[in-house]
Design brief:
Elements (H helix, E strand, L loop, with lengths): L23 E2 L1 E7 L4 H11 L7 E7 L4 E7 L2 H4 L3 H6 L4 E7 L14 E5 L2 E11 L2 H10 L11 H9 L4 H9 L4 E9 L2 E6 L8 E5 L2 E5 L3 H4 L4 E5 L5 E5 L2 E5 L9 E2 L1 H6 L5 E2 L2 E2 H16 L5 E4 L5 H11 L7 E3 L12 H5 L2 H4 E3 L1 H4 L3 E6 L6 H12 L4 E6 L12 E2 L7 H4 L2 H8 L3 E4 L2 H7 L12 E2 L1 H4 L7 H5 L13
Parallel strand pairs: 15-25, 18-21, 21-22, 22-24
Antiparallel strand pairs: 1-23, 2-5, 2-11, 3-4, 3-5, 6-7, 7-8, 8-9, 9-13, 10-11, 10-12, 13-14, 16-17, 19-20
């Protein structure tokens, strides 16, 4: 079987010179089997998942005879906005990937899906998450003679499969059983599309259906954009194969307690998505209401830090019986600035994204609601902006517990020493960002809002390691030393 891989560099991606003090999800994945417009649906699905990665994207399609690929740097709409590009992506099945790089430069060789030729034919994979033993596996594979073409941990999957025996599914299962960490990925072979979710279900993956076609994707919002129906969440540890005979399910791992990422509900997922049967939007409202019950302070108005703070602020305002107002307006058309980032301009950078709505703030006691504080630099600038707009008092309420530990499971977290909650207690954090008071939702309060009575120490329902330091898997690479806390292998020689 032959293949043709058409690739395009796309626009150069540069680091945003202005402080963007948020945690970042690494990737979104999409796969579809059995639709004549598979490439178009994959591009639309990736567009809906753009919030999960804005650095690069790629699509691989299969027509039963050849594979066709296009990958590029930049946003989905720019990469796949050309009719000429889309016409090349022929076939009835496709996978797509949109990427956010955690460390190092975003270069084309790291853009997924990654492709390889096996004895059984061509195979491409797109991966969301982090393998916590990827560096260890990579070193062992290199010693065995494997030659890596990229510097992303996702390529480890391909080499593990190449050294395994059996058919495609048997090789994939052999590879999976050697991998640690968190992942969901989609893959494409000559006549099938495959999806896998890690044994604890840390990273999300859902199954949908459109007419006779089946779909695998990171979130339900990617089903909505193409008019597909949600079927179910892929179970933790489940391997799904889509082919001409429908959906086939394999369970290569022993049962384990589910530990889906709690931050998906707080910030990462799109608010219109449904995850594990829970409306993300309603979960954020409940978190905001619980935050108000735990830490309300006398005030005149509740103001969200847009856009991620909006649902929690609505819940807070309703519970506190205070007006909800858009006291900060977000500019949605920031993009890449052409302005030279001098120190003065960099300091003004937050105003490229946010501007105070003076009429809603002047002379008022304001409660600002946001989803998290990471380094605290952006929070500090927003508080200054609100005070300059005439606010009498500024109180900040955060709809997550303090982020005090790095994530090893596919989230771009600063080194622990850079996290404000690691360096300061809550009063110290309040002084740093310049608020009259600061409060975070408690861990147990977060669990109550999510429908659990409290966090059980021996078996919490969610992965909450960034708040508690309770990591649900081995951290082989980190424990071995010599590997950065946030591992994506982009800079590892």
């Amino acid at each position: 079987m032959s293949h043709s891989l058409e690739r395009a560099e796309g626009p150069a991606v540069v680091t945003n010179p202005f402080d963007d003090d948020k945690l970042r999800e690494e990737c979104g994945v999409f796969g579809i089997y059995g639709h004549k417009d598979s490439a178009a649906h994959a591009a639309l699905g990736l567009h809906a998942l753009q919030h999960r990665g804005q650095e690069a994207a790629g699509i691989v399609t299969g027509d039963g005879r050849q594979f066709h690929s296009h990958r590029g740097l930049g946003l989905v709409g720019d990469i796949f906005g050309s009719e000429a590009v889309m016409n090349k992506l022929r076939g009835s099945h496709a996978i797509g990937h949109t990427r956010y790089a955690t460390t190092g430069d975003t270069v084309l060789r790291n853009v997924q899906p990654l492709y390889a030729d096996f004895e059984f034919g061509g195979f491409a994979v797109g991966h969301n998450g982090n393998l916590t033993n990827a560096h260890t596996l990579r070193q062992a594979l290199v010693k065995r003679g494997c030659i890596f073409q990229s510097t992303t941990d996702s390529e480890v999957i391909i080499h593990l499969m190449a050294l395994a025996e059996g058919d495609l599914v048997e090789r994939l299962i052999t590879a999976l059983r050697q991998m640690e960490g968190a992942y969901s990925f989609v893959a494409i072979a000559r006549n099938r599309v495959i999806g896998v979710r890690d044994p604890l279900g840390v990273r999300p993956l859902v199954l949908g259906k459109l007419e006779d076609a089946f779909i695998l994707c990171s979130e339900t919002c990617a089903l909505d954009i193409i008019g597909a129906d949600y079927v179910r969440d892929v179970a933790p540890g489940e391997l799904i194969v889509l082919d001409e005979n429908g959906v086939h399910s394999f369970n290569p791992f022993p049962p384990a307690p589910k530990r889906s990422c709690i931050f998906e509900y707080i910030y990462f997922a799109r608010p219109d998505s449904i995850m594990e049967g829970i409306s993300v939007y309603q979960a954020r409202q409940r978190i905001g209401a619980e935050l108000a019950r735990e830490s309300h302070v006398a005030a005149d108005v509740v103001v969200p830090v847009p856009d991620s703070g909006v649902p929690a602020a609505i819940g807070y305002a309703a519970e506190a019986k205070l007006p909800f107002e858009l006291g900060i307006i977000r500019n949605h058309y920031v993009g890449r600035t052409f302005i030279e980032p001098t120190d003065h301009i960099r300091h003004l950078g937050v105003k490229l994204k946010h501007n105070a709505n003076r009429s809603m703030l002047e002379g008022k006691r304001v409660i600002l609601v946001d989803d998290s504080i990471v380094r605290g630099t952006t929070s500090k600038k927003i508080v200054e902006m609100v005070r300059q707009a005439g606010a009498k008092e500024v109180h900040m309420r955060i709809s997550s517990p303090p982020t005090s530990h790095p994530c090893f499971y596919g989230i771009d977290t600063p080194e622990r020493g850079e996290l404000l909650a690691h360096k300061h207690d809550v009063p110290g954090m309040a002084r740093f960002i310049g608020v009259d008071s600061l409060a975070f939702i408690s861990v147990d309060g977060l669990y109550r809002a999510m429908g659990a009575p409290k966090r059980e120490p021996n078996g919490p329902r969610f992965c909450d390691a960034c708040f508690t330091g309770d990591y649900p898997t081995r951290l082989t690479d980190s424990e071995g030393g010599g590997v950065p806390a946030q591992l994506s292998l982009l800079e590892i020689a």
